[in-house]
Design goal:
A hairpin with a 2-residue loop joins strand 3 and strand 4. By secondary structure, the chain is an all-alpha fold.
Length: 458
Amino acid sequence: MTPGPRRRLAVSPGNRTIGVAILVVTALSPIPFGSNRPFFWAVWATVLSGVLLLYLRTTIGRDQSAFPSFLKWPSVLWGLLLAWSLVQMAPIGLVIPSMQSAMPAQESVSLSIAPAATWSAFMKTFSYGVFLYLAIQTLGRMSSKFVISFIFYTITFYAFYSVTALYMLGDTILFFEKWDYLGAATGTFVNRNSFALYLGMGVVLGAALLVDSIMRYKRREIGERSEGILYLLLTQLVAAALLATQSRMGAFAAFAGLVVVLAIIVLKHNRSWQWLLAFALGLAAFSLLGFWFYGAETLQRFEVAGEAAQLRMTLYAQIVEMILQRPWTGYGGGTFEYAFPLYHQPSFATDVVWDKAHSTYLTLVVEDGILAGLATLSIFLILIARILMHIVLANEYRMAPTAAFGVIVVAAVHSTVDFGLEIQANMFTLLAIIAVGIASRANGEAKARLVGGRHAFT
């Protein structure tokens, strides 16, 4: 039997255009305060819906890999989360337990205590699913180095703007007077910790790109030496901006991501001890010099970290009380700022408004309930498993999945005590990196199906 002609998995002009659109969304979303406003959630949901319709129109029936099999369960869970948001908003008129123990059970029009806020959360969840699907399908067909470099350069741009705005433009935000975090770099974000997460992802990307350029240079590939020097300098710039945010967890999370990248390099390189020694010394020197020149305020904040931790523990204790009152239904997506005042005890800092749980994991459970919160985490665990499989099965260091896993570590660590991933610009950036990290494996499987060969892990 004569085999049919082989089809090549290539980037069509339509896919390339949509890939560029996804990169544009990633690059522009940090500008309007990190896109942390309902208006921008609606804008990006509309834009991504249009891009999705265009993609489906040009792809369905023409591309056998239009829906990769590994997205089956994440898509099911995503659909259930959207359905659950609709249930929370539905005017079904239930009798629910009171949110204050001293009051009797009350009638509620919906499970969500603020349906409008839950609708905004619905738009965000919808946007993330569409964004990830389009990113996997289009960015994954581009050069992984190009995409990772583009995202890194974008983060570098915002890092440069942040230090410029802090030291040369009168400590402003988008040329307006800042109303919070004076003296700290916030870039185009409002919150320094959220911006620190964004920069932390950039530090890890820079390190992964730097290692990749070193390895290419050792293979005598032309031009990689100068490129490596550029990555080194720009990574230092991003790290300096990170320290200028004065974010303790931002610095710690970025360091954790760098350590993970180092560990993967050691495991995947033949001369492990040499790489371990060189990068351990380099990382230590890099960290010490960074703190010496730029991190005085950050170090001072580490001195009072114990007081901050105690304050957070008191906050988390009151949040747990909220969860125990409505463990399965939650209070509705996006409703923490409306629900928490009902449980805010006078013994805990009443001089500020606590509109965030300062832990994304707790936020998921408070707003959506235990089962929906676990469903959200399960989506990421499935994607992480794909990236880890790629790293384990590869015969040598692979830049894209290593960078993706390092960035995931940064986001996961940071999210334990802050809400950086609840800022849409950060989530778009993370999803774009994850998409590139798993895309080469997905495309390898697609190629294998098309040519009838083995799986390719490239």
